[in-house]
Amino acid sequence: MKSRKEEDALGTVSVPESVYYGAQTQRAVENFPVSGLNFPSSFFSALGLIKKCSALVNQELGLLDATLAKAIVMAAQEVVDGKLDDQFVIDVFQTGSGTSTNMNANEVIAGRANEILTGKRGGKSPVHPNDHVNMGQSSNDVIPSTIHIAARVEIRRSLIPSLERLSDSLKGKAKAFADVIKIGRTHLQDAVPISLGQEFGGYARQVDLGIRRLESIEGSLAELALGGTAVGTGLNTHPEFAAKMIGMISRETRCSFREAENHFEAQAAQDGAVEASGALKTLAVSLIKIANDIRWLAAGPRCGLGEIDLPSLQPGSSIMPGKVNPVIPEVVIQVGAQVIANDTAVTLGGMGGAFELNTMLPLIAHNLLQSTGLLAAAATLFVEKCIEGISANREKCASNIEQSLALSTYLVPLIGYDKASAISKEAYRTGKTVRQVALESEILSESDLEKAFRGIRVSR
Question: Does residue 50 share a domain with residue 188?
Answer without folding.
Answer: no
